[in-house]
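Workshop exercise sheet. Pairs work together: one partner reads the sequence aloud, the other fills in the structure field after running the prediction. Swap roles for the next sheet.
Pair: D.N. / O.F.
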Amino acid sequence: MTEAKTPGDGPLRGVRVVELAGIGPGPFAAMLLADLGADVVRVDRPTGPGLALDPAHDVTNRNKRSVIVDLKSPDGPDRVLDLAARADVLIEGYRPGVAERLGVGPAPCHARNPRLVYGRMTGWGQDGPLARHAGHDIGYIALTGTLGMIGAPDGPPAVPANLLGDYAGGSLYLVVGVLAALHHARATGTGQVVDAAIVDGAAHLSAMIHGMLAAGGWQDRRGANLLDGGCPFYGTYETADGRHMAVGALEPQFYAEFTKLLGIADQAPARDDTARWGELREAIAARFKARTRDEWTAVFEGSDACVAPVLSLREAPHHPHLAARGTFTDHGGITQPAPAPRFSATPTTVRTGPARPGADREAVARDWDLPEPPADAPKPPVDNPQ
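Structure field:
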């Protein structure tokens, strides 16, 4: 591994990563590596980002640097291969076969750098009947059974934004795979390809549920189980002001404190009598409707009842616990989640704001000892797309 010349904080300081620009899980995975201290260089397209988002606000590009390369130009692939030759990791999120057609697939990259970890982020994976088809998060989690688990039994499955597929089943598994392969490359001198498919990761996330299903402890339908909203003491309830409280009083001692503070300890049916769960749910719902969210928050504050207010994105950073831990941070006028997890010896931080496309061409060329880019190389766009 060649020591990066750019300052960084975190356990991955000195690790060099090339990110071929994409949208969704690839950029998030690269952001996580950058948050951990890696020197991430994002290779942007001359046409700008794929999403209509001002690059100045794209938090997934924080702690990175950007160069612009036209991979369809005669020298484009060679410029990416020059980066790959000096990198520890490369991440791409194209459909299978696209990187090969562009001349930056695993074979030419490994010819230049046998130690390179080549991370591939897709929805369907590199092979299989759907591998070359278009798709999005919702379709990936639909086929794995995870989407069908979420929501009320008398309505359609609830859409969990794109957190479950793109980021949990995709980005996080790509990062785990890349770090494992990086460990192997350091030990053996041999890189490899990491095939991170959202369908694989999303399916893997449901491992415990599949075990419960096989043991007869989980019904294969929505809203009928302990952890999917079917249980009246594990779910959400509306308050008098139209907001909500979240209840997770699973253990008997927590349940006892919950019903006591809620004021239904004397009239609540036995928690283990599933035949009366409907009655218990109605009693809990009626009580929560009697007060506002903030009033109930005060009632349960400091208790072990496992009850919490359901906060909005703008409210969350101001919660006393999250504020005390610094779970969110402000950088460049943008409130955003702070890097996670935390390290005792190699702390992480938001070092720089979102990388502007092409803004770091000269600095990257200097720090990575790259050949001088041609005079007609793509320049950063004058106006950021909105």
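Discussion prompt: The chain has 13 helices and eleven strands. What would you look at next?
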